[in-house]
From TrEMBL:
Pfam families, alphabetized: UPRTase
CDD domains documented for this protein: PRTases_typeI
Activity regulation, per record: Allosterically activated by GTP.
Organism per entry: Ectobacillus ponti
Keywords from the named record: Allosteric enzyme, Glycosyltransferase, GTP-binding, Magnesium, Nucleotide-binding, Transferase
Stated name of the protein: Uracil phosphoribosyltransferase
Manner of cofactor binding, per the entry note: Binds 1 Mg(2+) ion per subunit. The magnesium is bound as Mg-PRPP.
Record GO biological process: UMP salvage; uracil salvage
Obligatory cofactor(s): Mg(2+)
Length: 209
């Protein structure tokens, strides 16, 4: 079974409070999501492998470390996932960014992919799938399946807020994919919103409604 990590770093928790606040406007909401995504990237990359190299400082040769594992790819799920990209790229500027768009079929209620543009070297990368809200888990599970179908092996899911229903759904569908969140909330309501959540992340990021 995949693992669920809830990041309890004080800076993440502090910023999350203002992300949740209904009085936070679009500009500040966007900035806070960006900052939380950076902080989450810092935490989620803790276990990346390193190798030792020698570096000449102005004084002597130092044994130093550089990242040695696979290159990284970020996959925001359209559209709210876009809000997390820049914050992560600030720390991992060499990551490539693919996009996956899904809509819900009104009859089957299943997510259907309408757009996918992914890095061409999928086998050579590890992936972070990004979606601020893990609600039912349907979109995230479908996006992960789509990546796997194209050859991705090592995938992590990064969300700001998750509902228990979404975590369970993704864990069942993808027991190999660990999930990283800033908060695990109470439940989904009848409209599919996370409670207490933050409302519609896409609308709040882009000022639509
Ligand atoms: N998507 C959102 O943006 N918010 C929710 O609460 C659930 C899904």
């Amino acid at each position: 079974m995949s693992k669920l990590f809830v990041f309890d770093h004080p800076l993440i928790q502090h910023k999350l409070t203002y992300i949740r606040d209904k009085n936070t406007g679009t500009k500040e909401f966007r900035e806070l999501v960006d900052e939380v995504a950076s902080l989450m990237a810092f935490e989620v990359t803790r276990d990346l492998p390193l190798e030792e190299i020698e570096t000449e400082t102005p004084v002597a040769v130092a044994k130093t470390k550089v990242l040695s594992g696979k290159k990284l790819g970020l996959i925001p799920i359209l559209r709210a996932g876009l809000g997390m990209v820049d914050g992560i790229l600030k720390l991992i500027p060499a990551a490539k960014v693919g996009h996956i768009g899904l809509y819900r079929d009104p009859e089957t209620l299943q997510p259907v992919e309408y757009y996918a543009k992914l890095p061409s070297d999928i086998e050579e990368r590890d992936f972070f799938v990004l979606d601020p809200m893990l609600a039912t888990g349907g979109s995230a599970a479908e996006a992960i399946a789509s990546l796997k179908k194209r050859g991705a092996k090592n995938i992590r899911l990064l969300c700001i807020i998750a509902a228990p229903e979404g975590v369970e759904f993704v864990q069942k569908a993808h027991p190999d994919v660990d999930i990283y969140v800033a908060a695990l909330d109470e439940k989904l309501n009848d409209h599919g919103y996370i409670v207490p959540g933050l409302g519609d992340a896409g609308d709040r990021l882009f000022g639509t409604k």
